[in-house]
Amino acid sequence: MHTTRADLASDAPATTVRLAGNEMPFGPLPGVVEAIAGAAADAHRYPDPASVGLREALARRCGVTADRIVTGCGSAALFAHLVASVGGEVVHSWRSFEAYPMLAAAAGGTSVPVPVTPEHRHDLPAMAAAIGPRTRLVVVCNPDNPTGTASGRAELDRFVARVPSDVLVVVDEAYREFVTDPDVPDALAAYGDRPNVVVLRTLSKAWGLAGLRLGYLIAHPEVAAAVGKVVIPFSTNAVAQAAGLAALDAEVEMARRVAVVVAERERVAGELADLVPDVPPSQGNFLWLPVGEAAEHVGRACAAEGVLVRAYAGEGVRMTIGTPAQNDRFLAALRHALRTGR
Ligand code: PMP
């Protein structure tokens, strides 16, 4: 019997589950969709170049003045702007968010990677020791991507105290809203009064607006002004500004959605305990499976079952927490992948 296209299609999983991008599984809220439509109708007009309304709303939320906030085309772009504003060497953990070395290079900086500990955590003492005369910036990804591990208050206190005052400490809190461990400090609350501490946040993750590209940083006014000088005018577009404002108005709904994801994170982590050794506890909306050489096999096998996860060759697999049904699809695909070996 010949295999027809229809046969192949009937074997294919009904829907593809996307658990590879650390995105929220929920679409934008009705109020946000409405704001997007409203802004789209005015798309022939330039946006407010300084995002005044949005920066004021973010400033209120953060309890700071608006001159400490810069918005940009995703927090990744703001990281590049930060590097461009100070130049020099960027010390960061590795493996961590893979864009750090790329963005540092693109912005004219040099990247100094510092290996993580065997527990997949930032090695903060080694990072402090790696700071040299040319270092302008040191990045702490808290919680860390892709492992979900997070640095605690005491170790961060020691680290921040060791960093010279002319070196910026950038705390990337892209996943801050998913943190449940009370020992993991909110960097703004803990270190916001230090002029060399910069906090990076985004509306891509908990707020579920990855496609709109909207990030913000909170810094000392002089640092914020220096970053503002290298941001290309109008780079926070009008739709993103309107959607961001509407999203910030829906804080309660955001927190409710985050709670669903966090509960699922703990459930999936519990199920993984019997399947994959040494999955580190995660404070993000994703889990790290340190499967080493099996990473590519697991990634491919899950994809064959219609579940897209992120494989890091030779290291591990990162799965983003989705809806309960999507996570069950992942667990079934993973069990299958582990049974079929490499
Ligand atoms: N920082 C970290 C740690 C991330 O994981 C990501 C996105 N994967 C970003 C920053 C970039 O987010 P944005 O969409 O705001 O550019």
TrEMBL record:
Provide this UniProt record's keywords sorted from A to Z.
Answer: Amino-acid biosynthesis, Aminotransferase, Histidine biosynthesis, Pyridoxal phosphate, Transferase
Q: Which residues carry this modification: N6-(pyridoxal phosphate)lysine?
A: 205
For this protein, what reaction is catalysed?
Answer: L-histidinol phosphate + 2-oxoglutarate = 3-(imidazol-4-yl)-2-oxopropyl phosphate + L-glutamate
Q: Known InterPro entries for this protein?
A: Aminotrans_II_pyridoxalP_BS (IPR001917), Aminotransferase_I/II_large (IPR004839), ArAT (IPR024892), HisP_aminotrans (IPR005861), HistidinolP_aminotransfase (IPR050106), PyrdxlP-dep_Trfase (IPR015424), PyrdxlP-dep_Trfase_major (IPR015421), PyrdxlP-dep_Trfase_small (IPR015422)
Alphabetized GO MF terms: histidinol-phosphate transaminase activity; pyridoxal phosphate binding
Cofactors (names):
pyridoxal 5'-phosphate
Q: Does the keyword Oxidoreductase apply?
A: no
EC number(s) in its UniProt entry? 2.6.1.9
Which pathway does it operate in? Amino-acid biosynthesis; L-histidine biosynthesis; L-histidine from 5-phospho-alpha-D-ribose 1-diphosphate: step 7/9
Q: Which residue range or ranges hold the Aminotransferase class I/classII large domain? A: 17-334
Q: Name one GO biological process term.
A: L-histidine biosynthetic process
**Which Pfam families does this chain map to?**
Aminotran_1_2
rRNA-binding among keywords: no
The UniProt subunit note reads as follows: Homodimer.
Q: Which family does it belong to?
A: Belongs to the class-II pyridoxal-phosphate-dependent aminotransferase family. Histidinol-phosphate aminotransferase subfamily.
PANTHER family xref list: HISTIDINOL-PHOSPHATE AMINOTRANSFERASE, HISTIDINOL-PHOSPHATE AMINOTRANSFERASE 2
Q: What protein am I looking at?
A: Histidinol-phosphate aminotransferase
Q: Which organism is it from?
A: Saccharothrix carnea
What gene name is listed for this protein? hisC
